[in-house]
């Protein structure tokens, strides 16, 4: 019995172009990359944010900024579509997020965290999802400012996921709760 599935060609995917992307309504979510070391992880998060219509990325601390060849390898041009800002100081970024009415929501393994499957979003929520350093996790600045902490449940022997993998899981979960057609 032959399969009825056929891979779609790029021109069949119905993707929007860069100009149209800029005018599309984004979900009120800012992704904060807090001291991310890997340029490939940064690029991957940009690409995922493009896929899920994320409002903006804020880069803080020593997180590298575009344009950079190593970021572009995984971003595939999404640094041109997704708006981004850089803040050297996390406290400045936190204050601006709070002033704009964003809930600070780190993704971290922490006492009192919320299982991401149980995360709820209200219709007018504005969320700042904070992703932390590959070794040390989310910095204390963001943890002490947190309104809620999300955690991805893990059952295996390893203690963590790669930050870009965690970003993909978390962004999908938040996107599907916030996206309004």
Q: Strand order within the widest sheet?
A: 3-2-1-6-4
CATH superfamily descriptor: SPOUT methyltransferase, trefoil knot domain
Give the N-to-C terminal Cα separation. Answer: 38 Å
Q: Mind telling me which CATH architecture this is? A: 3-Layer(aba) Sandwich
Instruction: Report the CATH topology name.
Output: Alpha/beta knot
Task: Bin the strand percentage.
Answer: 15-25%
Strand elements, count: 7
Look at the helices and sheets and give the structural class.
alpha/beta
CATH class: Alpha Beta
Low-confidence stretches: none
Major sheet: 5 strands, parallel
Task: Please give the structural blueprint.
Layout: H1 18-23, E1 27-34, H2 39-51, E2 54-60, H3 69-75, E3 84-87, H4 90-99, E4 103-106, E5 114-115, E6 127-131, H5 140-145, E7 150-151, H6 163-178
Helix pairs in contact: 2-3, 2-6
What does this structure look like?
The protein has helices spanning 18-23, 39-51, 69-75, 90-99, 140-145, 163-178, and strands at residues 27-34, 54-60, 84-87, 103-106, 114-115, 127-131, 150-151. It is α/β, with parallel strands linked by helices. The chain has one domain (17-178): 3-Layer(aba) Sandwich (Alpha/beta knot), CATH 3.40.1280. Helix 2 (39-51) runs parallel beside helix 6. The mean pLDDT is 96.
């Amino acid at each position: 019995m032959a399969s009825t599935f056929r891979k779609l060609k790029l021109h069949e995917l119905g993707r929007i172009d860069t100009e149209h992307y800029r005018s599309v309504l984004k979900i009120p979510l800012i992704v904060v990359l807090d001291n991310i070391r890997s340029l490939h992880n940064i690029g991957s998060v940009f690409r995922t944010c493009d896929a899920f219509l994320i409002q903006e990325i804020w880069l803080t601390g020593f997180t590298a900024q575009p344009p950079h060849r190593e970021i572009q390898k995984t971003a595939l041009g999404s640094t041109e579509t997704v708006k981004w800002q850089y803040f050297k100081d996390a406290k400045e970024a936190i204050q601006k997020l709070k002033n704009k009415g964003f809930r600070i929501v780190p993704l971290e393994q922490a006492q009192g965290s919320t299982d991401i499957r149980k995360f709820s979003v209200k219709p007018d929520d504005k969320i700042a999802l904070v992703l932390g350093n590959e070794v040390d996790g989310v910095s204390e600045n963001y943890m002490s400012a947190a309104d809620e902490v999300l955690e991805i449940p893990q059952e295996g022997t390893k203690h963590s996921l790669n930050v870009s993998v965690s970003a993909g899981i978390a962004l999908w979960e938040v996107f599907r709760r916030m996206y309004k057609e």
